[in-house]
# Entry
Amino acid sequence: MIVTVPAAVVPEVMEEAGKKGVKLAVVISAGFKEIGEEGRILEDKVLQIAEKYGIRMVGPNCLGIILPHKKINATFDPATPKPGGLTFISQSGAIITTIVDWSLLENIDMGLSAVISVGNQADLGFDDFLKFAQDDEDTKAIVLYIEEIKDGRAFMRVVREVTKKTR
# Structure
């Protein structure tokens, strides 16, 4: 499920999704912890609802996810990169749109296996997406654009595990 409603409505949408059995929500909506204490409280409420129903959540305040090999573009960016072997995981939607646009230039021979915007990482974060990329048969390399790591030790454990895997 992709959520793109005003932040104040997201708890209601998540509650309804939980009752319907939704298991994954990409919350593109902004207006959460990135705006201050009021937004942090709202983000915590959304996360509590997601946990109550077993919904895993990307975001909020993210661009979304693109999986070119599967022809999935769950973002508000109309461009989808060529399929390839590079997973790009970023905290910045602006950087993502730049990379996607750049990858589509005719003189660039680069394709992407996944483009993932982590946003505020209320639930799923870099660790989770690194594990996804590790198990993704289309991914040959991973690039990260990081602004915040919640648990540095856990992140480094996952990085060590992922870099040991050879193809």
The mean pLDDT is 94. The first strand starts at residue 2 and ends at 3. Residues 37-53 form the longest helix (17 residues). The beta strands are 2-3, 24-27, 56-58, 64-67, 72-75, 83-90, 112-117, 141-145.
